[in-house]
């Protein structure tokens, strides 16, 4: 069958994608120590190679993998975990495939529609089987992150007008944050122990660390901005809170398949709502009781 230039470009793109993803899966498999995960990733890599060879029967071309993309996703896997990396990659490629490559190819070559369906079902079935420590403890991380966002944004918002000094607010926020970190970690440990969880200590560490990191990020504007710029510092803190919520929810929406928009609105609404209420309380306390620091 004669292949026109447009189809040849599509076939070339598919070949490039398949051979590139094969190498990414091989690289990512080297990161994980778990043999089950390693086998899953290598199995997917093998499938990608078979797809590459099949497309090659139509193009009669050898294609070199995209080294930049291999480096990018391999680096993402090292930083954010292999589950996030491969699901992010598959999500982007699935969008491209549905919108362009496979739909056009299936018109000229019906057998490609079967490959597209098999690849999507097979790979997402395998990806759902992936098990990673970062995702096992996502509940503990959510607990620490969400509680810190609500408590610290609420606290500094309440402190802002009553204390009216960035350094004093930072000090009060830091003391509150460190105390709450220890309290949250201890509570998580006791709760997990009560459930006879094997890794209760690790769960509490994830909760405590995520809480403390969030506290530090939210307090930073008050530490570095001039003493009289407490309102501006509060605004920056709220912006940081929204950024943290955005990044974290994007991560779990990709890794766990959750709805990003719904979770973002929920978390942002709670955090900013508590901050607004606390700010009003601080304003009332300052004016009604005449307390000034």
TrEMBL record:
SUPFAM superfamilies: Ferritin-like (SSF47240)
Principal subcellular localisation of the protein: membrane
Pfam family, one: VIT1
CDD domains: Ferritin_CCC1_C (cd02431), Ferritin_CCC1_N (cd01044)
Alphabetical UniProt keywords: Membrane, Transmembrane, Transmembrane helix
Recorded topology in the membrane: Multi-pass membrane protein
Name of the protein in its database record: VIT1/CCC1 transporter family protein
């Amino acid at each position: 069958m004669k292949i026109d230039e447009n189809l040849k470009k599509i076939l070339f793109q598919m070949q490039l994608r398949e051979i590139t993803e094969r190498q990414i899966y091989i690289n990512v498999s080297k990161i994980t120590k778990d043999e089950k995960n390693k086998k899953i990733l290598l199995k997917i890599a093998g499938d990608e190679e078979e797809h590459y060879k099949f497309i090659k029967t139509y193009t009669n071309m050898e294609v070199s993998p995209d080294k930049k993309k291999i480096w990018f996703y391999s680096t993402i896997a090292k930083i954010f975990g292999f589950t996030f990396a491969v699901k992010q990659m598959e999500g982007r490629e699935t969008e491209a495939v549905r919108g362009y490559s496979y739909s056009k190819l299936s018109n000229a070559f019906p057998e490609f529609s079967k490959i597209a369906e098999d690849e999507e079902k097979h790979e997402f079935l395998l990806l759902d089987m992936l098990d990673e420590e970062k995702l096992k403890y996502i509940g503990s991380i959510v607990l620490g992150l969400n509680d810190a966002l609500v408590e610290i944004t609420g606290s500094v918002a309440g402190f802002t007008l009553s204390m009216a000094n960035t350094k004093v607010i930072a000090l009060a926020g830091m003391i509150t944050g460190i105390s709450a970190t220890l309290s949250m970690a201890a509570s998580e440990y006791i709760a997990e122990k009560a459930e006879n969880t094997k890794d209760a200590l690790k769960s509490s560490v994830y909760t405590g660390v995520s809480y403390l990191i969030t506290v530090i990020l939210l307090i930073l504007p008050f530490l570095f901005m001039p003493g009289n710029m407490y309102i501006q510092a509060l605004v920056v803190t709220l912006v940081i809170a929204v950024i943290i919520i955005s990044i974290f929810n994007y991560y779990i929406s990709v890794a766990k398949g959750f709805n990003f928009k719904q979770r973002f609105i929920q978390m942002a609404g709670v955090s900013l709502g508590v901050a607004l209420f606390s700010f009003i309380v601080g304003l009332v306390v300052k004016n009604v009781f005449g307390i000034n620091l």
